[in-house]
Amino acid sequence: MSRRRLALLLFAACYAQGCAARPATDDSESAAIIVSTWPFGKVANDIAMQRLNSGASRLDALEAGIREIERRSSDRSVGLGGHPNAAGYVQLDACIMDGPGARAGSVAALEGIVHPITAARRVMEHSKHVMLVGEGARWFALDQGLESVPVDVVDAVEAQKRSYVERKRDAVEVPRGHDTIALLVRDAKGHLAGGCSTSGAGGKLPGRVGDSPILGSGLYVDEEVGAAGATGIGENVMRYCGTFLVVEFMRAGMHPQRACEEALHRIAKIDARGYELDVCFIALDKRGRFGAAASNMRFPFAVTTETESRIVHVEPVQRRAASGD
C-alpha cells in the first residue's frame, strides 16, 4: 500500500471518530472547561468547576467563582477591598453574558455592593436593561436584596472637595496597577458564558468606567463561535472593542491563541503606544480550545478542566514591524 493511500485511510478513520476539526453542536456531550485571568483566577475556576460537577448551571458556577474573588478582594483589584479612586472611595464594575440568547447584564461605578457580579446578573435576569450605573445601579442592587455595606455620603462629599492638585499628589501613593477577574465557561453541552469584575484602576477619576463592564470590550460571548475576556488598561481595550475583535477573529477560523495575538497586533498597529498597551486577552472557543496573549508583559492565566487545574504563562507577543501602509 502506498504512503499516500495509507495517509488517506488514516485521515478517514480519524474523521469518522470525530478527530477532524469541526464545531461542537449544542447537544454534544464533552468535557467542560473554564479559563480565567491571573493566578487568582484558579480559585474561581476550581469553585466554578466544582459547581458544574455538582449539577449547577454554567451561570451559577461562573457567578460562584467570581463571587469568591470579590469576597477575597484578590490583589486589591476586585471587590470592595479594591483600590480607591482619586477621591478616596471604591467604585466597582462588572458584567455577565450568557451565550444562548446573547443575554447580558452590567453594572458600573457601583458603590457599597459586596458582589457586583451578582448585581450584573440581576440586571440581566430581573430588568429589561443591559447596563445600570452609579447610584441607579446601587439602588437596583439594594432593591434586589443584595449584600451591601453603608456608603458614607459625608466622607465621599468631603473627599471630592479636595483640590485636583491634592488628589494628583496623593494618587502617586496609590498603587495604580490593577487586575481584573475575567472568567469564561464552556459547559459539558458546549454552551458558553462569561463574567468580569474589577474595582478598576487605582486613583481613577470618580465616575470613570473601564472596559470590564462594557460588552465587546472587557467581555464578549458568542454562542456560535466562542468567548473572550480582557484585563489591563481598560482604555486601551475600549478604543478597539478588544474582545469583540478576538471573537470575530475566531469566527474567521482562527484558533483562540492566534485570535488573541492578532487582536493585539491590530491594536498595536493603530495605537500610538504600539505594543506598550498593558493589555491581555483570554479566549475560549466553541470546541473547547483556549488561548491567551499579552502585549508587553508575561501573562499568567488559569485553565481548569474536569481532570486538572493549572496556571499557564504566556510571553509577550512577538512584535511585528510597522508595515507603513
Brief rundown of the structure:
34% of the residues lie in helices and 22% in strands.
What order do the helices and strands come in, and which of them pair?
Layout: H1 3-16, E1 33-37, H2 41-53, H3 58-72, E2 92-98, E3 103-110, H4 116-126, E4 131-133, H5 134-143, H6 153-161, H7 164-171, E5 181-186, E6 192-198, E7 219-222, E8 226-232, H8 234-238, H9 242-251, H10 256-270, E9 279-285, E10 290-294, E11 299-305, E12 309-314
Parallel strand pairs: 3-4
Antiparallel strand pairs: 1-5, 1-11, 2-3, 2-6, 5-6, 7-8, 8-9, 9-10, 11-12
Comma- or semicolon-separated keywords:
325 residues, alpha+beta, single chain, 4-stranded antiparallel β-sheet, 34% helix, 8-stranded mixed β-sheet
- Estimate the global geometry from the Cα principal axes: globular
Q: Please report the total strand number as a whole number.
A: 12
| Strand arrangement across the biggest beta sheet | 4-3-2-6-5-1-11-12
User: What share of residues is helical?
Assistant: 25-40%
Q: What is the succession of H and E elements?
A: HEHHEEHEHHHEEEEHHHEEEE
Number of helices: 10
Return Rg in Å: 21 Å
State the end-to-end CA separation.
Answer: 51 Å
Structural class: alpha+beta
Q: Major beta sheet, specifics? A: 8 strands, mixed
- Multimeric state of these chains? single chain
Strand composition percent: 15-25%
User: Low-confidence parts lasting 5 or more residues at pLDDT below 50?
Assistant: 6-29, 169-177
Mean pLDDT: 87
